[in-house]
Amino acid sequence: MSDAMHSSPARPASAMYRPRTVGEAVDMLAGARESGTEVVLLSGGTDLVPALRSGERRADAVVALRRVQELRVRGAGADSLTVGAGVTYTDLVGWSLSPGLARTARVVGSVQIRNTGTVGGALGSARPAGDLLTFLTAADAEVLTASPSGPARLPLARFLAGGPAPGAVVTAVRLARPGGPQTYLKIGGRQAAFPAVVSCAVLVDRLRRSLTCAIGGVGRLPARMEEAESAAAGDIDWATGTASPAAARRFADLVTAAAARIAPALPVGPRESAEYRWHAAGVLAGRAFTRCLLPAATPDEPT
After folding, report:
1. Are the beta carbons of 243 and 299 closer than 8 angstroms?
2. Is the distance from CB of 136 to CB of 144 less than 8 angstroms?
3. Dihedral angle over CA of 290, 264, 101, 188, nearest 10
4. How does pLDDT run across 70-83, given as a tens digit for each residue?
5. pTM value surpassing 0.90
6. Which distant-in-sequence residues (6+ apart) come within 8 Å of 52 by Cβ?
7. What residue segments make up the domains of the chain, in order of their start?
8. Taking the C-alpha atoms of 41, 162, 144 and 93 in order, what is their torsion angle to the nearest 10 degrees?
9. Domain 182-293 coded CATH 3.30.390.50
10. pLDDT tens digits, 199-230
């Protein structure tokens, strides 16, 4: 499912398809591609519709997925959560099964954007500091797709690097059930009007005795902070699920250093230098670590 999987000179779409099932969507997409039609998938449309109107994007046909109820489902298994590609940010805001995901959804854009934007649209647009993508990167999520060749699943990083297989429709994302506190923080302009400049997600899993962290807005895709994660795992008192202020400072410093090594890096301007982004990444990581692991903090806990 994509709000931005093709790029060509401007031309308005001349055909609109409205499937009611995933199977119909796959068939319509396949039929359009076989006929040589340039087709895009429309999910929330918060990125695609303005691009089509402005002429930045073109399409001969649009497959609109709003009526596919299968894509609006959330589910929970013993160890995992599955979130349909048509689930909106508003749908996630109060989801107690994943407090970190709920927190991420709460700070996405305006109310109108949260009501319209979807999980699948975020995957298709793949903004470098996209709120949802940063959180899902930290969560080691995988992307589920359907195509004429059948269902498939891809690690999120591989999906973001190469996109879905030709003719595939994203149906859901899957991530582990929370095993401890998790949070999401970002720095930007007015959050209702502008995307994040730098974003950070930290997830703690007390059962596996691990911490994961992802930074968005420094590289072209969100990046995991693996060195900082390994150091943090040794600094955490797993018996109490807490860490010291010194551990938080060390974590922040390691993330700052790792952010400076991310390649390829995003282009920067005079107001947002590379050094600023690296520093912001460390600041956010230190705050997120503190929120999750220092006793006086108030983390986002699973309920």
Report:
1. no
2. no
3. 70
4. 999 999 999 999 99
5. no
6. 12, 13, 58, 59
7. 73-176, 182-293
8. -70
9. yes
10. 999 999 999 999 999 999 999 999 999 999 99
